[in-house]
Amino acid sequence: MDKSFYNLLVQRRSIYAIDHKISQSEEEVKDLIKQALKYCPTAFNSQSGRILALFNDSNQKFWNLTYAELTKVAPIAKHAELKAKINSFASGFGTVLFFEDEDVVHGLEKQYPAYKERFADWSLQSSGMLQFALWCLFADNNIGASLQHYSPLVENFIYDEFKLPLSWKLNAQMPFGRIVSPADEKTFVSLDSRFKTAD
User: Fold this and answer.
1) pTM more than 0.85
2) What is the pLDDT of the chain when averaged over all its residues?
């Protein structure tokens, strides 16, 4: 049995210590992102996933604005801690923003009314698969990444700042870069409590 995908499952981790010195070019990274976007499965082949890739100044701007939004709601005592965390994301090579196009989802609800109540769930499942697929591609290329969730705060600025359609619903943010230090050892809940078989 080919173990390559299994190895990626093990290798893919949340990497927080990153910088911008990856060996790939910006164009090579864009190609990885496009391949994940193209081939990741979606319900009814809806292809509802959307991505905004941020590099260089746009990456720095995104995290600066994110920090500004956080300081509006976080206690002052937490600002220094938040600044350090946000700076760690901004120091990477870039950030991927994951969206689902709600116009596509609502179109499917109208086209297939019998499944109307399920399309929002299936859209989120598709988004999760896209995030995981790209995370594995990054891991395969020795690029560290983590998954962040700063919605709805960042929605206060992203649509105007980056000229995005309002139908794009933000789900997650993935800062990525060269791995400066590996992830901590991962602990696992016993599989006996998570896995069953039926006779």
Assistant:
1) yes
2) 96
